[in-house]
Structure formats: C-alpha cells, structure tokens
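User: Here's a structure from my thesis project, written as structure tokens. My advisor, Dr. K., wants to see whether a designed sequence matches the one we expressed. Can you design one independently, without my sequence as a hint?
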C-alpha cells in the first residue's frame, strides 16, 4: 500500500517542529493510554482486512449459542456504522483460540477437525488420546465442511467460499488457494479434478482444482432451494437442497451441468451420502430418509426413520447409518433393510452433533459447542465413549484477570486461556459444569458461572491449570448473567429476575434475597449500592441492594427492544440493546434515570465493556464495534471488526479486546489509535518514519492540535553579531499569548554526535517576553545565553518540559546552529561578510567583535575556510538526525 507522508511545519531555519499534547484513549479498565506501553516494536499493519460485501448474520436461539444461519438486512458498523465520521481507532485481529466444530474428516490415522475458523489436525492413532499435530491460520469464516483428497483438505468456508489447504505436513497445514463462491459455501465433495461446492442460494458450484494453487470456476447449476450437502458418484451430483429435497444433477460435463430429477423430502434436506444405489438424506426434522437412486431420473422413497433430534449429517458403513442428530447426539440406525430402517443405538454427545464420519471402528462426531467426540461403534447397539478433543469450544462470555482469560464455554463450562502473550494464547485448564455456562465473573481466586438451569456454579481457580468445582447454588430460574461484589453474587436469573447469593464462604453459598423484574433478566452490573439489571422486555431495571435480603426497585428505563447487556461508568448505564444498539442512560439519580444518547447500528447488540473514553460493543451479526463515549449524549463510531462467528461477550484490558465469539471461540483484537486516520496505527506511523513524534508522547506530531510555535535567530539590542556564543539568542514566536516560563519549564540541550541530547544548559540562559527590538510582546519568548557554553557550531534542542501556562508541551530539534547569522541553516563565511563588510584587523571592542577563535581579535583567519568554525561548505546535521 502506498503510504502518504504528512509534512510537518518547515521553518525558515530548516527545522521541523511538532507541538502539543494529544487526547488519547485508555485501557479497558481505565488504567492507561491505548498507545504502546511495551518496549518491543509493534507489529505494524496497513489496517483491518477488507470486509467482504456479502453479509449473512447469525441468530442465537434463547437456549443456545446458535442453531443455524439466517439472513439479516444489514451488518454492524462495516456498512451502517461506517458513516461520514472518520475512524479514530484501528482494530485488527491479533489471534484466535478455539470455537465450535461443524465438520470433521478422517484419513488414515489423522483427524481433520474444523475448530471455529481453523483446521486442526489431530493424530488419532489412540482414539482415547487424540494429539494436536498442527493447525491452520485463521480463515475468514467458520469451517462448514471438510473433504480430504490427494494431499489437500478442501474446506467449505461459508461466505469465503472454497479454501484449499496443503496437508502434506500435518504439523503445518498451509493454505495454497481458494475460490470465493458467490453465496455461502456449505458443503464440498471432490472427484476427478473438480470440487463440487454446495453454495446455499447459488446452488451447486463446480471448481476446477487441477491446479490447487489456482482453482478456477468451471460451471454451476442453480438449484431451486438452498444447497447444503453434496455427494458425487459416477456422473451425478446429489444435492441436499434444504426445503427442496434431493436434487440430482448430471455433471458428466462439469462446464455444463444438467438437472436430472428431484425428490422432495418431507423435512429439510441438510446432507446426503450415497451408497449401494441409495441416497441417505439427513432431513433435519424428518430424521433419516432413504431414497432409491438406481434410476437417477426417477428417484423413489424407500424408507425413513424419524430421529428424536434434528438430523444434520449422515455417514454410512457396514449396514448402519450414523446420524449427527443435533441435540440428540449420535443416532445409529440399522439400514440392512433400507425399506425398514430401525433404531440400533445412540450416544448423547455433549454439545450438539453437527458432523459425523466413520473410520476404523469409530465414529467421529463434530459437536457444535463441544469439539470432537470419538465413539467406539464396534458394537453399534452399545456405542461407547472412546475419547475426544475439546479446547475452548463455544464461547459466550469472557473476563480477563492477571494474564488469563476466563471463558464461559456454554456446554463446556469454564475454560482458562493464558493471554500473557496476546498473539499466542495458550490453553491452561478447564472445568465442565452440569448446565450451560452463559456468563462468568472472577473474584478472590474463584470463578462464578451463571450456569443456566443449574444456577450459580463456583470453580476454584487458585491453580489455573487444575480448576475444580467447589459448590453451587441452584437459583429458581435460569442463570444467564452474574456479577460479584462485596461477598455477594448477583445473578440475572431470566424469568425470576435478580437473585442475590451470599458467597462470603464460596464453599457454602446460600440464597439471601431477590427481586423479580418484569421481564427476563439477562445481565447485571453492580455499582454504588445498586444492581443494574438488563431485563429483555423491561429494559434497564435499577435495584437497591443496600439490604441484600430485601432488595427493591427504585427506578428503571424501558427500552423498546430486548435489553441484553449492561455496564456502568461515570454516572451512566451503557446498555447493549438487542434491536437498538448502544443505549446510554443517565443514572446520576437512580430513582429517575434519563435517556442520554444512543448509537444505533441496526444490529443485534449483546454485550458492552467500557473504559474512560470508549464503549466496546459486540453483537451477533457484525462482531465488534468501538464507540467514542467521551460525550455520552453524542456517541460516535470509532472503529470495528467483523469477527468470525457470532460475538456474544467482550472484555477489554490495555490495548486489547477479548471477544467471546460463540462459534469463533476467543478472538483477541488489538485496538490502536489512528489519530490521522491514515489506516496505520500511530506507533507504526512513528516507527516506520511515516510521522514524526518530536515530543515522544506516542502521537504523530500532525495529530496534535496545538498552537504553532516558530523558532527564529534573534539579534539582541546590545549585539551587532551572532558570531560569538556569548551574544547568541533564540526567539520563539507563538500564535497566541504566553506567559514567562518558570525555571525548569524550558530545557536547552545540545544535540550530540551520537544523536542523543546532552545535559540541560538552561541555567546559562535568560528568558524574556519581547520582540527583536526589546519591546514587550506576549507572543514572543527571547532566550539569550548569558555565558559561553554552547560554542559556535552546536545543534540544540529547545523543549517545553513543564507545565508552562500559555504554551503546550513541545520540543524543537535540529533547530539552529549557533553562528548561523543569515538563518539559512548553514554556517559559512557568508554569515559574516554580508553583514560586516569592513572586518577590522585589530582588536575589536566587545560589542563589535566577531572573534571566532576567542583570541581577542577579529582577523581574516576567523573567516578562513581552513578554520573549522567557519567552514566553506554547509555544516551537516549530526548522524542519525536528518529530519
């Protein structure tokens, strides 16, 4: 990317200046600036990745992280929120960890698992202990399907289309190519040098993969419905077309596929596998459907089995069909008689069974929210758990404490991730709970989980590598949100409102009080003796908790949409409101809260975190948005990032935001100031030399809106020359009135040959407000040397280092070389001869002397080219400081 350089003010003496003090953001807990605080060089980048124009949002059902994809009219921020305002922040992904699993494939002893937006390769030699060998980079979307062929993994990556990964080295899967299909890639099959991609609304897309590094579109067929699953055999592609059943396409000429026939199933065709002249369709709410395809032009229903869950995927082996049956887990159906399939067995996997393959006497089930489950099916009527892999699956909430991120993992309970190096998060430990973990709070060596129907669950995290369950308190409703303060846990308990649990002794918690809000309590924040409850239909509810046994409502503010998340700061409640974005409520009077402002982004806002200047909001559709709340009555969009899955929870610490992204796991984002809105973080601007930072405050000089200061060489009234250091002076001219600086406010430092500054010499100077004729002038500061300390050829820096009234902090570097009489930036003989054409050859008086060598005489040798103080060529600036 071509980067433009911002030009600083260039003064007549050849100097550059930068003045002022910026207004910067603060960290996630109000603890410091967002500018770089560590010593290492930043990872400089050109700004967030391009956002694709295709948009399809995610929807979450009331009791889960999400079941399926549904269309939405708009997207957070990247379209609606990116209005005429310029972004003041850059947001970019630093790393990602975990996520839900939709797809799995097996080749030999290797298992290829989609974990959120990554392909993870596992050694499955020992099914009881699968070992991670490697993982891919982060793909644009959650992996929907995986097919292995010829040393490559072919991945259906939803709106990013087909991704091709070289898996010749399992420890280092490397993307080599891809093809961005026009809709949303759901499934993929490979045969004869072609990848057959079911592309949702765009039907079947056929991609030539003879050169995996350069796949090319070959042809396509627009099916009537939404193409989800695909199987290819001989000359036909069999497409599970959602509401339009099984579509059969002749692909003998991939460039010109032709429709052959259709069989309309009674459910919604989600996936298909072909074996022995039959198509076995995972038909969602209709279970397993078996279709005779011996004559592809006339498919016929043979039999079916209506499973108890929702059939999402199917595999066939040895006379059995293995169905990934969503909330019913793995269902095994005897298909030895296709006309009369019978239930044979099942295994209720944790999470939701989403994908399934069979290999070597085991089924491998990709469980949405629960990673990989390996089930021994040597006896199909009695399947047994063999092993699994689940590290930080579905993430619903996150808090950051002491270098660790604590994640509420929905069906997997608590996950602990080491984020001391945000670019390389590492799994530390976990503890599964018996319910669905929606929210987490951390206090005093314990994690407190809002565990849905199991109420409050308490986990000892004193040893993060070995967390263990301590106790629980079953609330009367379904616990969705939790906050801990002063020895109490405050639980947003769905239909039962606010519940207060005494946790002074975490091993023996007990209920002490509650208040039933009018709607469904989803989140809670505590501040100043009040609990602020996000109540879906009741809006913001304010509960006085000064008496924990008898809490009572003091006020509230009804918001038209569903209120999902709340955070408190500075006398305001910041509410993530499902349909209306960020709502800001003035709670300075809790009895009479007043609406103050809003940021509406037409999204599905779920959670919000705060610092002193910004609100960090997440939503299901568009991920992450940063909103400037320095004026709560007029919040402004400041930056955003479209996370991979459905953003559900957020925490902020330092310059990093930690997003619980349901399907996408833990997403770590870096928030960088970009004051000049050039798409480059400020510290990168400075390090890469695109911008100067003369006062070393981490802000590019052009971003500092401060009074301009001009540096001049002045000739004091009692001096006729600047040749002698004892009579040198510097004049600073400001564009507004100033006051005389106090001692220590102004530093005068020589610039040394190594590029550093020497000791402060300001004690050898006098300061006065006057112009070059000695008249008082409150916009001019005259700095005059009162002893010979600088010499005649030193470069100097003048710095305002104190709290100088009327002048902002600044530093002027490489400003003037003492002895530069004509102010052209060079010291040559011309600095004397034009001004003093008659140079005496005898001793001169003190007021007229230009005695360069200090021998008491003004002689020709004072101007001689061989004399080092008056060279015949310009004096260069010190090495390393060529501004």
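Assistant: Designed independently from the structure alone:
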């Amino acid at each position: 990317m071509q980067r433009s350089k911002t030009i600083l003010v260039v003064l007549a003496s050849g100097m550059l200046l930068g003045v002022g003090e910026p207004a910067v953001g603060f960290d996630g807990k109000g603890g410091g600036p967002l500018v770089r605080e560590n010593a290492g060089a930043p990872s400089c980048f050109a700004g967030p990745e391009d956002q694709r124009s295709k948009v399809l949002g995610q929807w979450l059902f009331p009791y889960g992280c999400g079941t399926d994809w549904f269309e939405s009219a708009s997207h957070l921020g990247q379209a609606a929120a990116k209005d005429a305002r310029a972004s003041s922040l850059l947001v970019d992904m630093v790393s990602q960890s975990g996520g839900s699993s939709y797809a799995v494939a097996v080749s030999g002893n290797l298992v290829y698992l989609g974990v959120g937006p990554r392909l993870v390769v596992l050694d499955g030699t020992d099914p009881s202990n699968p070992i991670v060998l490697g993982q891919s980079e982060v793909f644009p979307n959650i992996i929907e399907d995986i097919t292995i062929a010829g040393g490559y993994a072919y991945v259906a990556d939803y709106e990013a289309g087909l991704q091709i990964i070289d898996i010749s080295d399992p420890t280092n899967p490397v993307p080599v190519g891809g093809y961005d299909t026009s809709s949303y890639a759901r499934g993929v099959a490979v045969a004869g040098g072609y990848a057959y991609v079911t592309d949702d609304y765009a039907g079947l897309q056929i991609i030539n993969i003879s050169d995996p590094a350069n796949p090319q579109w070959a042809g396509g067929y627009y099916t009537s419905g939404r193409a989800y699953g695909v199987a290819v055999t001989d000359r036909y592609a069999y497409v599970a077309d959602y509401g339009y059943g099984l579509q059969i396409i002749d692909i003998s000429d991939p460039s010109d596929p032709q429709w052959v026939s259709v069989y309309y199933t009674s459910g919604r065709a989600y996936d298909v596998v072909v074996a022995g002249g039959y198509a076995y369709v995972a038909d969602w709410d209709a279970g397993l459907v078996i279709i005779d395809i011996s004559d592809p032009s006339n498919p016929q229903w043979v039999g079916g089995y209506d499973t108890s869950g929702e059939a999402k995927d199917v595999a066939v082996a040895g006379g059995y069909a293995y169905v990934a049956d969503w909330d019913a887990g793995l269902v095994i159906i005897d298909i030895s008689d296709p006309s009369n399939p019978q239930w044979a067995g099942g295994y209720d996997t944790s999470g939701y069974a989403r994908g399934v393959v069979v290999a070597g006497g085991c089924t491998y089930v990709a469980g949405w929210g629960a990673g990989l489950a390996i089930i021994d099916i040597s006896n199909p009527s009695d399947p047994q758990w063999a092993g699994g892999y689940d590290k930080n699956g579905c993430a619903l909430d996150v808090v950051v404490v002491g270098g660790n991120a604590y994640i509420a993992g929905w069906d997997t309970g608590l996950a602990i991730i080491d984020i001391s190096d945000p670019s390389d998060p590492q799994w530390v430990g976990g503890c599964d709970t018996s319910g669905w973990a929606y929210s987490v709070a951390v206090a005093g060596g314990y994690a407190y989980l809002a565990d849905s129907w199991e109420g409050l669950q308490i986990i000892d995290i004193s040893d993060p590598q070995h967390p263990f369950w301590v106790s629980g308190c079953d609330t009367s409703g379904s616990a969705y949100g939790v906050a801990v303060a002063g020895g109490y846990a405050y639980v947003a308990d769905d239909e039962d409102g606010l519940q207060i649990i005494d946790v002074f002794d975490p091993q023996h918690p007990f209920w002490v009080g509650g208040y039933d809000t009018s709607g469904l309590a989803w989140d809670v924040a505590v501040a100043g003796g009040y609990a602020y409850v996000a109540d879906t239909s009741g809006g913001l509810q304010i509960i006085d908790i000064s008496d924990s046994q008898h809490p009572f409502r003091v006020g509230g503010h009804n918001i038209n949409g569903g209120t999902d998340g709340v955070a408190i700061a500075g006398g305001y409640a910041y509410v993530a409101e499902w349909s209306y974005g960020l709502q800001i409520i003035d709670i300075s009077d809790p009895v009479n809260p007043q609406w103050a402002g809003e940021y509406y982004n037409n999204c599905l806002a779920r959670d919000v975190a705060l610092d002193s200047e910004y609100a960090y909001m997440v939503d299901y559709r568009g991920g992450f948005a940063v909103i400037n709340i320095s004026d709560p009555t007029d919040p402004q969009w400041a930056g955003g990032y479209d996370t991979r899955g459905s953003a559900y929870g957020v925490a902020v610490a330092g310059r990093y935001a930690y997003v619980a992204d349901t399907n996408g796991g833990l997403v770590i984002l870096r928030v960088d100031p970009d004051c000049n809105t050039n798409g480059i973080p400020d510290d990168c601007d400075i390090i890469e030399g695109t911008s100067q930072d003369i006062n070393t405050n981490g802000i590019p000089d052009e971003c500092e809106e401060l009074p301009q200061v001009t540096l001049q060489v002045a000739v004091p009234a009692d001096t006729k020359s600047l040749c002698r250091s004892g009579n040198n002076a510097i004049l600073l001219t400001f564009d507004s009135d100033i006051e005389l600086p106090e001692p220590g406010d102004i530093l005068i430092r020589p610039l040394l040959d190594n590029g550093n500054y020497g000791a402060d010499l300001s004690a050898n100077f006098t300061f006065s407000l006057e112009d070059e004729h000695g008249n008082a002038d409150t916009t001019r500061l005259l700095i005059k040397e009162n002893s010979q300390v600088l010499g005649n050829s030193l470069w100097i820096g003048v710095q305002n280092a104190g709290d100088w009234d009327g002048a902002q902090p600044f530093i002027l570097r490489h400003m003037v070389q003492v002895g530069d009489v004509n102010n052209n930036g060079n010291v040559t003989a011309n600095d004397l001869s034009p001004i003093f054409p008659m140079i005496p050859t005898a001793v001169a008086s003190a007021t007229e002397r230009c005695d360069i060598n200090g021998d008491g005489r003004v002689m020709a040798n004072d101007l001689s080219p061989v004399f080092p103080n008056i060279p015949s060529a310009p004096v260069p600036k010190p090495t390393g400081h060529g501004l």
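When you compare it with your expressed construct, this may help: The helical segments are 682-687.
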